[in-house]
Design goal:
Structural class: alpha/beta
Shape: globular
Order of helices and strands: HEHEHEHEHEHEHEHEEEHHH
Strand order of the largest sheet: 3-2-4-1-5
Distance between the termini: 49 Å
Largest sheet: 5 strands, parallel
CATH topology of the largest domain: Cobalt-precorrin-4 Transmethylase, domain 1
Strand content: 15-25%
Radius of gyration: 22 Å
Helix content: 40-55%
Number of helices: 11
Number of domains: 3
CATH superfamily of the largest domain: Tetrapyrrole methylase, N-terminal domain
Length: 282
């Protein structure tokens, strides 16, 4: 089935993260024109629709009903109806439900069209004052246990800025864990973005003291400085090079990945990969 044969369109519509004035004219038009709005919470989206006099029918689509709801929505799309996918705030699918619908629509040959707009990730990043050329969004960290430790260990070698989401009641513990894993890097804690009480707390991991917090938080951690990076042990370099080569990457691409993951000069990374490739061939 081709896209033109599939009928409807799924519009992935970004909505305000706080200030309702941030809903773009294009997003308003799409929300009025589609047959249905799939919402993370219909009650929350109702407030936005009331603000802009949007009367389009709404249906819930969240983590607990997505598996059941998607086939129903696909049937409507196949009949030629278009729908908008929205989350409670910001860009859908970014730590929010909707992936199952988008994937199923694409598999069925149905067009998926993004309608860009507000994003807490980008808003916090550009307000942090940290480098934006390279950054990684890690969403919500695993709550506890080995998975949390493994995630933080994997992020330690990333050479750019790191962005996380966190609930206010877990923020203090998360900052402690980030300090333990990443060291005394600079950090910016953005809260209530675009709302009346918007603020960005800035400091250093291990030193930043938290006041009483409310609302979902976005934590931005500065990337490591070249002199702050702990050199990887030879056996760690060898294991990483072997893993990248085994994944099917070319020597050049494996070297690029090795340099990015472990902070090596590109020349040293290529030499390490070349040595391991020759060792494996012998």
């Amino acid at each position: 089935m081709t896209v033109s044969d599939a009928g409807g369109v799924v519009y992935v519509v970004a909505t305000p993260i706080g200030n309702l004035e941030d809903l773009s004219p294009r997003a308003q038009r799409i929300l009025r024109e589609v047959a249905l709005i799939a919402c993370e919470d219909t009650r929350h989206t109702a407030l936005l629709c009331q603000r802009y006099a949007i009367t389009t029918p709404r249906v819930s689509l969240h983590a607990h009903n997505e598996a059941k709801r998607v086939p129903e929505l696909l049937e409507r799309l196949a009949r030629g109806e278009s729908l908008a996918l929205v989350s409670d705030a910001g860009t859908p699918l970014v730590s929010d439900p909707g992936e199952r619908l988008v994937r199923a629509a694409l598999d069925a040959g149905i067009a998926v069209v993004p309608v860009p707009g507000p994003s807490a990730v980008l808003a916090a990043l550009v307000a942090s004052g940290f480098a934006t050329r390279r950054f990684a969004f890690a969403g919500f960290l695993p709550r506890k246990g080995s998975e949390r430790g493994e995630t933080l260990a994997a992020l330690r070698g990333f050479p750019g800025t790191l962005v996380f989401f966190e609930a206010p009641n877990r923020a203090a513990d998360t900052l402690v864990d980030l300090h333990a894993a990443l060291g005394p890097r600079r950090v910016a804690l953005a809260r209530e973005l675009t709302k009346r009480h918007e603020s960005v707390l800035r400091g250093q991991l291990g030193e930043l003291s938290l006041e009483e917090l409310r609302g979902e938080l976005t934590i931005v951690v500065e990337g490591p400085s070249d002199d702050a990076r702990t050199p990887a042990a030879p056996e760690e370099l060898d294991a990483a090079a072997d893993r990248l080569l085994a994944s099917g990457l070319s020597r050049r691409d494996a070297a690029r990945r090795l340099a990015a993951e472990l902070g090596l000069p590109k020349r040293d990374a290529y030499a390490r990969v070349l040595a391991r490739a020759k060792r494996g061939a012998s």
